[in-house]
Amino acid sequence: MELDEITRKLSDLDKWREFFTCQGLESSKAAKQKDQANQKSDDVCEGERRAPQSTGSKKHAIPGTLTVPASLGGQPISIEMALHLRMILCGSTFQVFNYEWRKAYFKFHDPYSDLSYALEAEKGGARGVQMSVQAYIIKYLLLIRNSDENWSMASLHGINQKEQERSLSVALTDILWTAGEGQKVTVCLITPECYFTATSEYKADNFTERLLLFEIYGKEAVQTFIHDHIHCFKSEGSHGVILFLYSLIFTRTFEKLRKDLDFTTSHLLQCSLGNFICKQALINMMLTGRSSPNVFNGDQKFDSETEALKSRHGVLTRSDVGYLHWNREKMEHGSLPQVGSMLKTPKLPIWLCNINGTYSVLFSTNRLLLSDWKVEHLFDLYYYNGQKSQNKTIHLTIDTHSHYWEGRHHGDETDIEKRFPSLEMTIRTKWRGAAINWNGTVPFF
């Protein structure tokens, strides 16, 4: 009986051993399959990280109609050029433009409309570039195209598509030619060819690697070339704003850019809340041709307690388009930069405005505004901010002799700042104490 009992228990033990062995094999097999799946997933992720297009989304792809054939000529971009380009733009070779920048291009409002002269500019860092170009478009349409006529808002209305394209090509040429100091311009276009791939030092973005650089001598030749390829800057999906920015940098050259900048600024874009915004050096380059980081006149020596005497670079000459700056928060903290007369008083009554970090354009149709002091007693200004909510040009009347400001409003400066729209405060950085009539438009901040 004891022997039978022992035999039965051994048999039961074998059954349990077999059961647990099977369970272990299944668990081992499942674990192995899971590891393989995870490895495959890791490989896919790694492949996506190594892919030339960082987002992997077709919506970033440039249509073939907006590329140029490699046989057109020009110099293919090299990995060394791309590394320098990234460093001067972002301060890092691994930073790439986000979606807002990649989709930005130079898009006009509908032809023949009241805003047919105006570019649409969505929110984002690219607005600084778009509104700078907008100022030069206004310069062309008001001054160059109508050199023998009086300026008027009527000349900005009802522009057709052909005139829009011409004004854009003239504006881009104007900015590039100034940056190239009237010698030559480098225009960047995109080809279907990829001239290098990502490396351990460079993150690819699927369009910088396909740049073709064209060196062009003579302003008329530059304008003709840009006009012939204007679709590469004004079409959806073209990355037109980035292409123009690249052209501006290569035109200025890395060597001159390094001389333009000072110890306060090493690159042209600043990362803020996940987006790249234009530093003052880039704005100044579009306005004056020189990427000086400051808005005061000339260069200033900076004496630090811990460092040797250094020079801060400002604006050396008056440009055609000026610059006005107002920021309520910086004003309240006493850190608002004081714009010098070189930018405040340009050759033409057109200003790029930086109002609370948003770029817009202010201009006059009176050619004599900045050359005849009597005109500055009472005059009109026009304002455009590029936002979709604006469906007409804002008309403002400026009165510098009414003493409205001093007569009706007392109290400390902080109270005054809070009671008036930022656009009005921006205008008063140029015309102190001016009264501003919005001519029926509801004032906005």
TrEMBL record:
Q: Where is this region: Disordered?
A: 27-62
**Entry keyword set:** Hydrolase, Protease, Thiol protease, Ubl conjugation pathway
Molecular function terms from GO: cysteine-type deubiquitinase activity; K48-linked deubiquitinase activity
Catalytic reaction(s) noted:
Thiol-dependent hydrolysis of ester, thioester, amide, peptide and isopeptide bonds formed by the C-terminal Gly of ubiquitin (a 76-residue protein attached to proteins as an intracellular targeting signal)
Q: What is its EC number?
A: 3.4.19.12
Biological processes per GO annotation: protein K48-linked deubiquitination; proteolysis
* Pfam families reported for this sequence: MINDY-3_4_CD
Instruction: Determine if Ion transport is one of this entry's keywords.
Output: no
Basic and acidic residues biased stretches: 32-51
Q: Where is the Deubiquitinating enzyme MINDY-3/4 conserved domain?
A: 86-440
Q: Report the InterPro entries cross-referenced here.
A: MINDY-3/4_CD, MINY3/4
UniProt keyword Cytoplasm, yes or no: no
- What does the function comment of this entry state? Hydrolase that can remove 'Lys-48'-linked conjugated ubiquitin from proteins.
UniProt family annotation? Belongs to the MINDY deubiquitinase family. FAM188 subfamily.
Q: What is this protein called?
A: Ubiquitin carboxyl-terminal hydrolase MINDY
